[in-house]
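Work Package 3 (structural annotation) set out to generate three-dimensional models for the target panel prioritized at the project kickoff. During this period the team completed the workflow that converts sequence records into discrete structure tokens, so that structures can be stored uniformly alongside our sequence database. As a representative example, we reproduce one entry of 265 residues exactly as it appears in the project archive.
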Amino acid sequence: MTAIATRHNVVSRDEWLKARTALLAGEKELTRRHDELSRQRRELPWVRVEKNYVFEGPNGAETLADLFDGRSQLIIYHFMLGPTWEEGCKSCSLLADHFDATRIHLTHRDTTLAVISRAPMLRIQAFQKRMGWSFHWVSAFSNGFNRDFGVHFTKEELAGEITYNYRKIKFGLEEAPGLSVFYRDEAGDIFHTYSAYARGLEGVMGTYQFLDLVPKGRDEDGLAFSMSWVRHHDKYDADYVVDPTAGYQKPREVQGCCQHQERAS
């Protein structure tokens, strides 16, 4: 499947233990650094959300406040599913495969997880049913939410450099992945506290955490696009082969005009 060599240096148990203990010191240092960065993240200043965002949900209109579902903390995953895409992004789907199992734990820590895409609700529901997910997913088709939080760009903007992940870059798609965090106080005011993009999303992807433990690791060094090995979980089969030269493949566009319900933002 990949080209990483599996032959490796083999030593006695005592020599292995010495090397493992040395690595442990580095792991502990990384853990302490991670704890410190988490503390600094919690101390970031907040920005009040002034716009009244209204989304299309499975049962009608939902505001940003509604998405909190009675809790004070909200994590939004910006899922790459464009208005005319046939299916969701494979990489976003890999992340989303981790969402349902953790929601029960998050809700008991005063935190709600929700997902937002620009596709109309009917297309979201069809893809969600296919993938077997049950997390809360709403459409931002008729408001500027994803644009305001740095994950949607116009075709005109893509002709030059856009700002993504807090820097100017060339980017090839109108949709990008991201995660945004919000807090709602007792008065009902909502604040944006944090956003992360690109590799900043890896921390919520358990698959990568497991792969980092095994001899081959993520095994992506020889790939033109690091996540070209990823498939939708219903598309892995006996013919699975990784093409190391493949770049990112945007999902196919559907034929005809997308159907949607316009709502005020």
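The first strand starts at residue 47 and ends at 48.
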